[in-house]
UniProtKB/TrEMBL annotation:
Pfam family, one: MltA
Organism, as annotated: Novosphingobium malaysiense
Protein name as annotated: peptidoglycan lytic exotransglycosylase
Signal peptide coordinates: 1-28
Catalysed reactions, semicolon-separated: Exolytic cleavage of the (1->4)-beta-glycosidic linkage between N-acetylmuramic acid (MurNAc) and N-acetylglucosamine (GlcNAc) residues in peptidoglycan, from either the reducing or the non-reducing ends of the peptidoglycan chains, with concomitant formation of a 1,6-anhydrobond in the MurNAc residue
Length: 397
């Protein structure tokens, strides 16, 4: 059950499940426009069962220590936000958070044994993908070889005023812009933006060298730009143009371009990138079918920020649907991908991460993180750890 390095078979550079379904990480990082769920549906409405004792989970000291550190960082937010899952209340977390402030890492397993109990949400059948913080070649300024603009959030990207547009299914007004005639209209799509709709407005915060690499950084929702002089600029999700996300991996599979058959490209992020680079016109048209476009802001400080506005940590942070998992809660995964087994802290969300027991594991930055995250698609079981006393209060027996 301990987290271990990926096997050779596990190291194919995929991200296909992410690319097919991602609609943002929202997050976190992010990530893309969300799939809307029925307003009343959450963990309590779906059904909750008691899980096993934490002492039966084979929690290791190293795993518990990393999870405790991430949980501690989440505590200020956990104790001040409403839990959309219906499982917990802000004050429920206070005993664990108070104890976590000065708890020694050497007895981290005891911390979780002392303050938590487990629940199974729905049938507990889990599906986990992976994400990472990509690093691409880029620069703060435009010069030869660096001419792919990275835009900050446009000031005319706004939410419609009441009566100016049809509300979305979740009741909120759509995002778009107001034209010269004062009428609300959808915002520029990917193709229009890449054709120059935003040029000349001073919105560029950086420039990328490869449009394909930048496209995949947008899928992830945050990343790093490494300049030729070795300096690094970290950028994070600032917003999205309000148009739906289309996963190009799914389109390519439907059209027979990727797969295991003769003449097909590998069903992986490497394979998808290879196809686009080798077929630039077709690849550009394919990317333009994803009308969603992500805007960025420069990040400073420690690590990319998740939906809780605290840093997400490699091999400790996981994105989840807050309707089914309280953000900040520990999550136990037991999957058919051993490197993702163990304790995680729900600190992020994602547009494709919708539904009970759907998770997106964070693997950090660098080539190994890219490999593991890209190839991550694990299935198994999940438990949510909640403060002791939660089951009794909810009548979960």
């Amino acid at each position: 059950m301990s987290r271990r390095p990926a096997s050779g078979a596990a190291r194919k550079l995929v991200g296909l499940s992410l690319l097919i379904s991602l609609a943002s990480c929202v997050n976190v990082i992010p990530r893309q426009s969300a799939v809307v769920l029925p307003p009343a549906e959450n963990a309590v409405a779906l059904g909750v069962k008691p899980g096993p004792s934490i002492s039966d989970l084979s929690l290791t000291g190293a795993d518990a220590s990393a999870a405790l550190a991430s949980f501690r960082e989440s505590c200020p937010r956990v104790m001040s936000r409403t839990d959309a899952s219906g499982l917990t209340r802000p004050d429920d977390w206070r005993p664990a958070c108070t104890a976590a402030e000065n708890w020694g890492a050497g007895s981290a397993v005891l911390f979780f044994l002392s303050y938590f109990e487990t629940v199974q949400v729905g049938d507990g059948k889990a599906h986990a993908t992976g994400y990472y913080e990509p690093e691409i070649v880029g620069s703060r300024t435009r010069h030869a070889g660096f001419d792919v603009p990275i835009y900050g959030l446009p000031p005319d990207l706004v939410r419609a005023k009441p009566d100016d547009a049809e509300p979305l299914a979740n009741g909120r007004m759509p995002i778009g812009r107001y034209g010269p005639d004062g009428r609300f209209t959808p915002y520029w799509d990917r193709a229009a933006i890449e054709q120059g709709a935003l040029m000349g407005r001073g919105l560029e915060i950086g420039w990328a060298a490869d449009p394909v690499e930048f496209f995949f950084l947008q899928v992830q929702g945050s990343g790093r730009l490494r300049a030729p002089d070795g300096t690094v600029m970290r950028i994070g999700y600032a917003g999205q143009n309000g148009l739906p996300y289309t996963g190009i991996g799914g389109l390519m599979r439907q059209r027979g371009l990727i797969g295991d058959g003769p003449g097909q490209y590998p069903g992986s992020m490497q394979g998808i990138m290879q196809y686009i680079h080798e077929h630039p016109a077709e690849g550009k048209a394919l990317m333009d079918e994803n009308k969603s476009y992500v805007f960025f802001r420069e990040l400073s400080g420690d690590g990319p920020l998740g939906a809780l506005s605290v840093p997400v940590r490699a091999e400790s942070s996981v994105a989840a649907d807050p309707r089914y998992v309280p953000l900040g809660a520990p999550v136990w995964l037991d999957l058919d991908r051993g490197e993702a087994d163990g304790m995680w802290i729900a600190q992020d969300t994602g547009g494709a991460i919708k539904g009970a027991n759907r998770f997106d594991t964070f693997w950090g930055a660098g080539s190994q993180a890219r490999t593991i995250a890209g190839g991550m698609s694990g299935r198994g079981e999940a438990l949510v750890l909640v403060p002791k006393g939660t089951r009794a209060r909810l009548g979960v027996r």
